[in-house]
Design a protein that fits this description.
2 domains; 6-stranded parallel sheet; 28% helix; 19% strand
């Protein structure tokens, strides 16, 4: 009997109180072995240290994978691991999938989908860093995979597991600030030329020798072949649309999380790029302003959500002019929801709400709305692992929710990339006014990297 079948027969009685379907490693409930066999796809730098330090080190770490052995060397040394190490996650999953219960995926955006889907197909539970995928078709396909393979899923927008975002959602739904029709979100980045964002002088960028220890072809994965450029790694790939989604992809899943959850926003019908700084072809801009138009739903009216990135002159843009707030950068917050009675602000990663004006804030603090949302203990990784073991409910940022949030962001990225207004038919998953841009709703992939077509 292999480990997964053993865990399946060892489950307890919690199933009656959960909403989960049968899991790949077992039905809800404690197993006789309370530790999971966890693998990492993406094992270098802080992005891997985060899951390690926030719960995974307490489980059985059984395998590691990274295309950059030099980047992973420090973590492997500090963790004193002797477990198998792979360059290619496809090889790792083929060889060890029967011994892996769960995998954390911390690769660049363009390889999230392939790694995630291949793990799900093998009955492995997945935690994938944000944004969930690189394009809309991939996000929607992972929702189908979740429904088919019945595994526990979680996207890494950490603030979704916090108390602060729950306080915000409860306040909005209780009508503390009244009816919300407009939302302002922002981030000061990207800082081009910094440790996170490249600033190439030309496109395509100049070729560089491939460093020892880097499996360059595997790093490219589904992306078209090209020469190595030194500033692609380890983090600056975010500047290039072929690999990342810029500032909106990097922070949108954090900053837009509160309004999307609180206002129950489905995907927008219109997304327009109002302003965009010029950039080289295929490179993100230094600043932009995107407007998302969400239709009315239920008792809620239509909502317009603004996204600003890059350094902005806030005396001229992002005007609020209500309840003491002049603009989107009021009191340093990254998100402001504007209601008929007041404002609710929060940070880049959700966090605790700030109610304005002062009299409304005092009233909210003295008589907060009831806690209608369950709190999460220990953060998103432990939330995910408890669900796998049958010790807790489905994670809040599971792929059904995460795919919707990611799709909103990816539509904004398309509008930003081409400096245009797009009209979105959500039912058909098509851009109707610029049909040529549907090539970026489902992007072409390199031979040998076609996954998910059967779903």
């Amino acid at each position: 009997m292999n480990r997964r079948n053993f865990l399946s027969t060892a489950t307890g009685t919690l199933a009656a109180t959960t909403v989960f379907p049968s899991f790949a490693i077992g039905k809800p409930g404690k197993s006789a072995n309370s530790k999971l066999n966890v693998a990492f796809i993406g094992s270098g730098g802080w992005i891997a240290r985060q899951p390690y330090e926030q719960g995974c080190k307490d489980e059985n770490l059984v395998a590691f994978c990274d295309v950059d052995r030099n980047l992973s060397a420090e973590n492997m040394k500090n963790w004193r691991t002797t477990q198998p190490f792979f360059d290619d996650f496809r090889v790792m999953l083929d060889k060890l999938h029967k011994e892996i219960d769960a995998v954390v995926i911390s690769t660049p955006d363009h390889t999230h989908f392939a790694a995630t889907l291949l793990a799900m197909e093998r009955g492995i539970h997945v935690y994938t860093q944000k944004p969930l995928t690189h394009n809309v078709w991939q996000s929607r396909t992972l929702v189908k995979a979740k429904e088919r393979y019945k595994v526990v899923t979680q996207m890494g927008n950490q603030g979704h597991a916090g108390d602060g975002i729950r306080q915000s959602v409860e306040a909005i739904r209780a009508g503390v600030i009244g009816e919300v029709r407009e939302v302002f979100t922002r981030n000061e980045g990207p800082e081009m030329g910094s440790m996170h964002f490249a600033n190439p002088a030309m496109m395509p960028p100049p070729s560089s020798p491939v460093p020892d220890g880097l499996a360059w072809d595997l790093w490219l994965g589904p992306a078209a072949k090209r020469d190595f450029y030194a500033d692609y790694i380890p983090k600056k790939w975010r500047s290039f649309y072929d690999f990342g989604n810029g500032m909106l992809g990097d922070f949108g899943c954090h900053t837009l999380d509160t309004p999307v959850w609180a206002l129950d926003l489905d995907v927008p019908t219109v997304i327009e790029c109002v302003q965009r700084e010029k950039s080289l072809d295929g490179v993100i801009p230094t600043a932009s302003h995107i407007k998302f138009h969400f239709p009315a739903k239920g008792d809620r009216g239509p909502v317009v959500l603004h996204w600003f990135d890059g350094p902005q002159d806030w005396t001229k843009v992002g005007r609020i002019d209500k309840f003491g707030a002049e603009h989107a950068a009021y009191l340093g917050r990254a998100c402001w929801m504007v209601g008929t009675k007041g404002l609710l602000g929060c940070g880049t990663h959700a966090g605790a709400p700030l109610i304005a004006p002062e009299d409304l804030r005092k009233q909210w603090k003295e008589s907060p709305p009831p806690e209608t949302l369950p709190r999460v203990a220990g953060g998103p990784f432990r939330e995910w692992m408890r669900a796998i073991k049958g010790e807790g409910p489905e994670p809040g940022s599971n792929f059904t929710y995460a795919a919707k949030l990611t799709e909103i962001i990816q539509l904004g990225v398309i509008a930003q990339r081409f400096n245009t207004r797009i009209e979105w038919d959500a039912k058909e998953a098509r851009i109707t006014n610029h049909p040529e841009l549907n090539a970026f709703v489902k992007e072409p992939v390199r031979e040998g990297w076609q996954y998910g077509e059967a779903l």
